């Protein structure tokens, strides 16, 4: 059997400190994966004069997927290509509490849901400009019914919601809900948006998701306004299964959701399209932790678990996830953010020992 080729982008600041041991652990699992390390970012600029040289792009195109460390600049050419160039429209952000995780909640038991965030549209990428540029459009304020005053000094941002992309992530959410139901989940898809105020854009988003769920008779549908979702996520996070949300609000809400179970150090993600995928932790580069060997590798390890699942190594993905959760259950090698004293290296070694 030919090896599956995976590109690795180490990322910036403390990100390589979780990427490198994760890849080493995966290599020890001997799964038939060939890892190709790319030169990108500041190192590539020093060597080649650009952050995402043609050789890196070619390597990405020839690989099955990419394992991506956090980047300091979300507009970096490498990330932009993985996201918009490869059209990875669905950003899966699982939120799951397991014994040993340092949740701020009194009763976190049973928290296990996935936010499916639209990854290409909304307010990202930032299409912004001077307010005066809108003057030829003569936009009408829906509240006052007056023409928008573009004479004031200010800025605007364009927010785009299309039927096609919304249908894509709605379908991705439904397929995930169906898979989770087959494993004992509830099989419920909840759409979250501000469809009461953004009647046309978020209203379209809500409607497309509902229509898509109707094509899956085994699933149930619910809808929540964004502000109510924030409240419900704190009062009763156990009620959620698969939550489909527009781009920028999904970005913000998923960070808040990570706080329910113990923080961003526990938050993995998978960005998947029809033909490509990349996997990265939700957290940033943690520049304050650079070189200290204390950054929590859990988010990166669980992102790798999603990558293994995507590549078809289902049994190995389950073993990796189980090993991570066993380390938490024992509580002997937890990192500082989880109330322990273990280094990044010691945590990864503990996971390796479980494997």
What does this structure look like?
- With 355 residues, this protein is an alpha/beta fold.
- It has helices spanning 16-28, 41-48, 54-62, 77-85, 163-182, 201-213, 226-235, 247-261, 298-311, 314-330, 344-354; strands at 4-9, 33-37, 65-68, 90-96, 112-118, 128-130, 155-157, 188-193, 220-225, 242-245, 268-272, 277-281.
- The strands form 2 sheets. A 10-stranded mixed beta sheet has the order 2-1-3-12-11-4-5-10-8-9, with helices on both faces.
- Helix 1 (16-28) packs parallel to helix 11.
- The longest helix is centred in the middle third of the chain and has 20 residues, at 163-182.
- The two termini are 23 Å apart.
- The model has no long low-confidence stretch (mean pLDDT 94).
Record keyword descriptors for this entry:
355 residues, 17% strand, two-stranded antiparallel sheet, globular, 10-stranded mixed β-sheet, 2 domains, 12 strands, alpha/beta, Isopropylmalate Dehydrogenase
The helix count comes to: 11
Q: What best-fitting shape do the alpha-carbon axes yield?
A: globular
The CATH topology of the largest domain is given as Isopropylmalate Dehydrogenase
Tally of distinct domains: 2
Report the count of strand segments.
12
Q: Tell me the radius of gyration.
A: 21 Å
**CATH architecture name of the largest domain:** 3-Layer(aba) Sandwich
Largest sheet: 10 strands, mixed
Task: Give me the secondary-structure topology.
Layout: E1 4-9, H1 16-28, E2 33-37, H2 41-48, H3 54-62, E3 65-68, H4 77-85, E4 90-96, E5 112-118, E6 128-130, E7 155-157, H5 163-182, E8 188-193, H6 201-213, E9 220-225, H7 226-235, E10 242-245, H8 247-261, E11 268-272, E12 277-281, H9 298-311, H10 314-330, H11 344-354
Parallel strand pairs: 1-2, 1-3, 3-12, 5-10, 8-9, 8-10
Antiparallel strand pairs: 4-5, 4-11, 6-7, 11-12
Helix pairs in contact: 1-9, 1-11, 5-6, 7-8, 9-10, 10-11
């Amino acid at each position: 059997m030919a090896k599956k080729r995976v590109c690795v982008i180490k990322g910036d600041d403390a990100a390589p400190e979780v990427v490198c041991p994760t890849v080493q652990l995966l290599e020890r699992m001997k799964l038939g994966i060939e890892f190709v390390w790319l030169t990108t970012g500041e190192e590539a600029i020093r060597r080649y004069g650009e952050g995402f040289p043609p050789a890196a792009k070619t390597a990405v195109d020839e690989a099955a997927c990419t394992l991506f460390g956090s980047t300091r600049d979300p507009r970096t050419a490498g990330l932009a290509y993985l996201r918009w160039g490869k059209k990875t429209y669905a950003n899966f952000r699982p939120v799951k509490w397991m014994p040993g995780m340092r949740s701020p909640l009194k009763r976190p038991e049973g928290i296990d849901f996935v936010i499916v965030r639209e990854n290409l549209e909304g307010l990202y990428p930032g299409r912004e400009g001077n307010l005066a540029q809108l003057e030829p459009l003569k936009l009408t304020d829906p509240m006052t019914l007056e023409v928008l005053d573009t004479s004031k000094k200010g800025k605007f941002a364009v927010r785009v919601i299309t039927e096609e992309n919304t249908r894509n992530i709605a379908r991705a959410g439904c397929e995930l809900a169906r898979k989770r139901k087959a494993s004992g989940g509830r099989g419920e898809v909840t759409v979250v948006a501000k469809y009461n105020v953004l009647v046309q854009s978020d209203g379209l988003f809500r409607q497309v998701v509902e229509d898509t769920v109707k094509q899956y008779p085994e699933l149930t549908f619910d809808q929540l306004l964004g502000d109510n979702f924030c409240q419900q996520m704190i009062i009763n996070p156990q009620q959620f299964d698969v939550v489909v949300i527009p781009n920028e609000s999904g970005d913000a809400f998923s960070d808040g959701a990570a706080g329910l179970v113990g923080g961003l150090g526990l938050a993995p993600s998978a960005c998947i399209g029809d033909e490509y995928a990349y996997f990265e932790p939700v957290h940033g580069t943690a520049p304050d932790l650079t070189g200290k060997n204390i950054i929590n590798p859990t988010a990166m390890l669980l992102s790798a678990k999603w990558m293994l699942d995507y590549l078809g190594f289902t049994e190995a993905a389950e073993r990796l996830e189980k090993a991570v959760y066993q380390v938490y259950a024992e509580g002997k090698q937890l990192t500082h953010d989880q109330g322990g004293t273990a280094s990044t290296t010691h945590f990864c070694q503990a996971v390796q020992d479980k494997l």
